Each structure stands twice: as C-alpha cells, then as structure tokens.
Amino acid sequence: MQDLGIRVLFMGNNFIRLLGGLWITLKISLLAVALSVVLGTLLGVVMTIKHPVIKAITKFYLEFIRIMPQLVLLFLVYFGLTKSFGINLSGQVSAVIVFTLWGTAEMGDLVRGALISIPAHQYESGAALGLTKGQIFLYIVIPQTLRRLIPLAINLTTRMIKTTSLIVMIGVVEVLKVAQQIIEANRYTVPDAALWIYGTIFFLYFLACWPISLLASWLEKRWKN
Amino acid sequence: MSEETILLEVRHLRKDYGNGAVLKDVSLKLEKGEVLVLIGPSGCGKSTFLRCINGLEPIQSGEILLDGLSITDGTAKWSEVRQKIGMVFQSYELFPHMTVLDNILLGPTKVQKRNRKEAEADACQLLERVGLLDKKDVYPRQLSGGQKQRVAIVRALIMKPEIMLFDEVTAALDPEMVREVLDVMMELAAGGSTMMIVTHEMQFARAAADRVIFLDGGEIVETGTPDAFFDSPKTDRAQRFLNTFTFEKK
Asked: What domain range includes position A201?
C-alpha cells in the first residue's frame, strides 16, 4: 500500500496547491472569455459592415490570430513587449491579453457567421410590420443569433480553458506547473506520482469544462424551437 | 371611381434592376374595398411591384400616393406607412423563436404601442376566424405550411391596415393546404377588405377579384373585370398567357 502513487495527493499541501493552480487557470481563462464575448460580439457586428477598409482590417486581424500559434503570441506579448518597448507585464496579464485577442477574433467570426445566417426574409417580415431597424435587431435578429451562437461559443470557452496550459511557458504557475513541481519533488519517494497527478488534473479540467457543456445542452434544449 | 375612395394611387412607376427595367411605366388606382388581382408570367414584375408599394424595393421614378399623400417623396416614414399597408409573403417567414401569439402581438405592442391585453383579445378573435385559436401558444415549427400562412395573415391583419398585399402566398404550399389559405382570403374579400393579390390561382382570381390586371414585361398589358378578362381577353399576350393554364384533351 505504501507504494501506491495516489498518496502523493494527500502529502502535505499538494492537493491545495493543485487547486490553487486550477484557480489561476480558471481566473485567467474566464476573464479572457468574458472580455472576448463582449468584444467579440462588437467585432462580429462590425465584420458585417460592407466597407472595404473595415473588411480588410478585420480580415487581417482574424487571419493573423488564426495563423499564429498561441504560444508565439504569448512570447510576443510577454517577452517581446518588454524587449521592444520596455513594458513589463506579468505573466498573468500577458496571458489575459493574448487569450482575449484570440477569443475576440474567434468570437467575432462566430457572431458574424450567426448574423449572416439569418435569412433576409426575416428582416423583411419585420419591416413589413412597421418595425424600425433597431426593433428588428432587438426582437428578431439578436434572439435568433444567440440561439445559433451559443453551442459554438461554449465550445470556444472550453478550448480557451484547455489552452491556458501554455502559460506555463511564460512562467505562470498554474495547475500544470504545480503538477510538475509536485512530481519533481517526489521523484524518488513516489515514482508513479505522475500518473495520479495528471489523472487528477484531467479530472479537474473535466470539472471545469463539464458544467459549461451542460449549460450549453440545457440552453439548446430550452431554445429548441 | 370617386376621388375620396381612392386609397392607393401609383403614377408612372419605374423600377430598374441591374441592366434592365423591371417595371417600365405602371400606373393604377386602388379603391377602398376593391380586390385587385395581378397576374402575369414569371419575371413580369408583379412581386416587385408589391414590394415597391411598401418600400421594400426602391423605385427609380414615379410616385405612389396613399390616402392622397405621397409616400415616395421622402417625407413619409416607412414604419408608419407600413402600418397602413399589410403584406403577406410567399415564404410566410414567421419568427421561429416566438410562439404564434407572440408573433402576432409583436407588431401591435412594439410598433403601435397598444395595450397587450387588448391586442391579445383581438389576436384571439382573428385566430378564431382562421380556425387556429388552439395553436396560439405553439411554435411555428410545429405548424403546417398552410397554418403558418394563415398565422402570417393574422399577423398582418391585427395591425388594422387599410390595404393588404398578398405576394403569391400559396405558391409554396402543398395543394391540400392552398384551399384553407384561399378561403381566408375569400372571406376577407367578401368582408370588404381592400386587397392587392398576386397569384397564379386562376379560379381563385376569377372568384375573388373585382378587377384583374395582367402584367407582362414590366407593364400593364390589359385590365378588366374577371369575367371579361378570363372569357374574352382583348390582347394576344393575355390570351397566350391564359392558354398556358388550359389543356386540350389528347
């Protein structure tokens, strides 16, 4: 029994530290998600404007974020800004900035896609009733857009949560880093700690992402009209 | 036709689309209580004409007057004009995220700012007339095409418009459901509604119309009473068009 790796979880304050790391992960990703939803929605609406310059700028932004690996973006912001402009950002702030930039771009594209999927006839039916453009948006377009948007937006949220594991590389001590520290510290005493630690982390990520998925399913069912 | 009873007047309407004129020089007058049926081959501009009347399509020249006042000179607000001109479309576009009742009440409550209870009573009365009162809390996806179209008609009627426009409203329906919608329209016509109907249903046109207008190539080729038009059309083009609906036994 004493060779069972699982005991590493109960040694000292290991488990508390893992939870602390998870807290950092969630704090950064949920803040980035919240900002991305707001900014992304604005961006999505802007992206539907038929102005060549606006289209060019937004397209460039979207493609740039999509092509760049998130890790490179993190390095650019964390190390690059310091080296070029002397701006010293903490790892956590850099992470929030980068993930917001990424999330906004993706969210903007989702919103744009949802908006253009509303058939023109819906706008016309609203107009034929005498509704103003604002009213058409408020009562007809936006409710339908939200319904089309939510599943994909939830998917984006869980992806963002999982990708935060990269911020280890800019020195943020989040849950994966804590895991590595514990495993290293106990390398000789508990050799198969890795299995249990990573298993626990898998479980923790699941705990973080599953309620969000459930929320999405519940919303989809509620709006199944 | 006396001046006081002319609700709608169209003067020399011209509409271009891309490289050609869809409507060349269309003029007509619509009297209160009159049922006008527009027929013609595909692409002749009849749907476009209806859409110009309630501002869904801009016009290049000409004038449209409602109750003697111009609605095309830029002084009128379309959201007000459209309360007086109701329109029902071929693709019945109900709002899928709202129940039947909410669909119907959106216009009266948000545009006309009517009291919801009062509008609801009105809505239920209209739904009963078209035989759909039991569906008022149902979502559009649970309705058949014919039912959706009848709801669309109620949705337009509850705004108490002066004129109702119908744009090929039965064209997308299965044959069994066409009749239930046409019955509603017949009832409206018999009840004195002022209507302009674009349709391919010739029997219906003959029974419902006070006047038939035949459009071809963007201009009015012939007008007349239904009996006169269907029995003995004056122009060749009208005759040829009507022939497409009759079959000689082989």
From this structure: 5-222
Residue B112: how many other CB atoms lie within 10 Å: 14
Mutate to test the interface with B, among A125, A131, A140 (most CBs of B within 10 A): A125
Q: For chain A, how many structural domains are there in total? A: 1
Q: Please write down the long-range contacts of A60-65, taking CB distance under 8 Å and 24 or more positions apart.
A: A61/A105, A62/A105, A62/A108, A62/A109, A65/A101, A65/A102, A65/A105, A65/A106
A positions 134-193 inside 8 Å of B (CB): 135, 139-140, 143-144, 147
- CA of B105 vs chain A CAs: smallest distance (Å): 11
**Can you give the CATH number for the domain in which B96 is found?**
3.40.50.300
pLDDT tens digits, residue range A2-39? Answer: 556 677 777 777 788 888 888 888 888 889 989 998 99
pLDDT exceeds cutoff 90 at B3: no
Crossing angle of helices A193-222 and A14-47, rounded to 10°:
40
- Decide: helix, strand or coil at residue B69: strand
Angle between the N-to-C axes of helices A175-185 and A14-47, in degrees from 0 to 180, rounded to the nearest 10 = 150
Does residue B100 sit within a domain?
yes
CB B30 within 8 A of CB B196: yes
> Which residues of B are less than 8 Å from A143 in CB distance?
97
Instruction: With CA atoms as reference, report the closest residue to A145 among B103, B96, B89.
Output: B96
Helix (H, G, I), strand (E, B) or coil at B200: coil
CATH number of the structural domain spanning residue A22: 1.10.3720.10
Q: What is the pLDDT of residue B120?
A: 92
For residue B134, being part of any structural domain is answered with yes
Nearest to B106 among A119, A124, A139 (CB): A139
The one-letter code for the residue type at A145 is T
Q: The dihedral of CA A195, A200, A205, A211: what is its sign?
A: positive
* pLDDT mean over A215-222: 82
Q: Distance between CA atoms of A140 and A25, rounded to whole angstroms?
A: 37
Longest dimension (CA), chain B: 61
B61-93 pLDDT, tens per residue?
888 888 888 888 778 888 888 999 999 998 878
pLDDT average, residue stretch A54-62? 92
pLDDT per residue over B129-169, tens digit each?
Answer: 898 999 889 999 999 989 999 999 999 999 999 999 999 99
Q: Is A117 on the interface with B (CB under 8 A)?
A: no
